[in-house]
Amino acid sequence: MTALLSTRRPDLFRNLTxxxxxxxxxxxxxxxxYELRFDFNVPPLYQTERLHALFxxxxxxxxxxxxxxxxxxxxxxxxxxxxxxxxxxxxxxGIFMVVLWMALPSQIxxxxxxxxxxxxxxxxxxxxxxxxxxxxxxxxxxxxxxxPEGQRRVAIVGAGDAGAMVAADLMAKRGLGLKPVxxxxxxxxxxxxEIHGVPVAGSPDRLExxxxxxxxxxxIIALPAKAHRRVREVINLAKSLGLETEIVPSMxxxxxxxxxxSQIRPVELxxxxxxxxxxxxxxxxxxxxxxxxxxxxxxxxxxxSELCRQIANRSPQRLILVDQCEVQMFxxxxxMITLGHGSIVLPMxxxxxxxxxxxxxxxxxxxxLVFHAAAxxxxxxxxxxxxxxxxxxxxxxxxxxxxxxxxQVHKFVLISTDKAINPTSVxxxxxxxxxxxxxxxxxxxxxxxxxxxxxxxxxxGSSGSVIPxxxxxxxxxxxVTVTHPEVMRYFMTIPExxxxxxxxxxxxxGGEIFVxxxxxxxxxxxxxxxxxxxxxxxxxxxxxxxxxxxxxxxxLFEELQHTGEQFAETAHPRINRFVSQAPTPGQVExxxxxxxxxxxxxxxxxxxxxxxxxxxxxxxYLE
Length: 623
What we know:
The protein is of the alpha/beta class. The longest helix has 36 residues, at 2-37.
């Protein structure tokens, strides 16, 4: 009780302070409206009327402000929606007073007073909130104060919405030490105009001229997400001029409130790879998740943690995080708490192979949705440890799916991989067997539960992906090792892949294998070259690119479709659906029995040859 009272005292003090401030502002507004109506010579009769009006008009305005949420928000965060709520509450009072005036004109303030009070109260309330916001941004932002003359002069490339947000944010937060002095944009209609007082001086091709004229020291790119080629051109031009280059967050992040426009960052590889932004049916995804108990296995991994972020933003009743790595689990839990989701998050340290532990979790928390992202995924490592890949990826998935079916889970979503298609690696084969096991469980369940799988390719920045390896090699001075000059892979960003996983799950009817449209495959050597250039070096001059040959289980090209799978479109253009003949539950049960009998450490070749009996399209790498 003491702790509860202590947490409520700051809110009580804040609300009392707000009540006093708002009351003074509204009282002054009504007082001023009378003074102007009578040219600062209010007759005694109207002075009495004004006094009476203060006792009912101001309380009425305060009540409407409370109803419109102006006592719940933070004073220092003031945007257009807050302005509209203030105006909406005050105009409701004004309309009410006009209606009363029409009925009782002798007892209600004159119409000019009603109009003046509406204008003055709106202006004063808005100015008060705006002043507090500016004070917070300029003096309490946490950035050290800097001399305006010492600020770095910035050119913003892109005079659209994102560029305007960056300029406004930087001008408001002078402590960041960045001063926008000029815009550059390819749209000639914007040339010669100003945005927030900053001129649009021409196209980015004039960067050299603009740098001299405006003494530019840094470039901030605020171009649309589709302008990947233009971003590369601007980066190369800025690099040739010796200018630092950074980029703003995506409009998705800005619009969702995850980041602010001033949180610029270095240019990353995903900004250059040509990935178009994904349009999601957020309402359909929200309906699937809202007020549901959702469980994510492998919650500490790259995909699992992003699943947690996106699921938590869609109002689940509870989010159960399952991972066998305590360190990763702790990091995800702390992030969820920081993002304001601590009340719904439940971290569970557990292995999907521990049947008793998983059974207890299902019985205790009764999840409605299960996203199964726990897996061993490193191809070369699993090639030398096939027993572990099959135990975790195949037997673990089968066991978890059986528990989900037994406990009447509404949807079970398996995170699969494009390496399960005509696999040449144990990892891919283990995932293909997991898909078949999932499909077999769908058959007896009919419409009572929905089981599906989602395949996608390499994810930028995930643990074990080629990107962190290349970055480490570049930092060490090279060489950057590429397996083969012609090896190609599909790439997606982590948020994009997870968003499409949720979209696919929301469309699932049962037994499908969804394949995400991953765009065009990219040669790995080109990825290496771009990363070297982003790091400020020249490929094969400053940093050597060395070819080391394909590793066990690797392909030159990833495939999209099994033989025998029927292609079908879905309601989303970036999601395809494959439907194939699923094995019977009895077949899968027998396969799993035989698989367990063949999981003998040290007999890798024999195990791989056995797998071809279950997955005929598997081409094993034999030592």
